[in-house]
Design goal:
Blueprint (H helix, E strand, L loop, with lengths): L13 E8 L5 E8 H10 L3 E4 L4 E4 L8 E8 L6 E7 L18 E4 L4 E4 L7 H4 L2
Parallel strand pairs: 1-6
Antiparallel strand pairs: 1-2, 3-4, 5-6, 7-8
Length: 131
């Protein structure tokens, strides 16, 4: 059996993917992969996702330069979620989020305010990252 056949793809042929920073174990982002994206990620050692909005492969960093080098690819116990251990390239510390932050998970629930608060700084203005 092909290793890709062991993944439980959803009805659209996608699987959710979590990118986690090697070393710090920070959760950087969540995205989707189709079969081709996962195959290319394994072949290239670079994160390749599937953009649902653009309906095409998305090579992380293709516009921003913030490439993710993949060190480890894991599959959860139900075979329906992929975890990538990555090094985030392109800025120090690495920027994974399109908002110019290290992680996409920068909003924290504040019970006193009954709302969300940005708790991580913008490391680089997104206007200067994307053309």
């Amino acid at each position: 059996m092909n290793w890709l056949d062991e993944v439980k793809w959803d009805a659209q042929g996608l699987v959710p993917v979590i990118a986690q920073e090697q070393g710090s174990n920070d959760v950087l982002m969540f995205a989707w992969m189709n079969r081709e994206a996962l195959q290319k990620t394994a072949e290239l050692g670079r994160a390749v996702y599937y953009s649902r909005s653009r309906q095409r492969l998305w090579f992380k960093g293709e516009e921003s330069g913030h490439v993710q080098t993949v060190h480890d690819i894991r599959l959860d116990c139900d075979n329906d979620v992929v975890l990538l251990k990555v090094t985030q390239q392109g800025h120090e510390p690495g920027i994974a989020c399109h908002t110019g932050r290290h992680s996409c998970f920068f909003q924290q629930y504040d019970a006193d305010k009954a709302g969300w608060t940005a708790v991580d700084p913008v490391l680089k203005d997104p206007e200067s990252i994307y053309k």
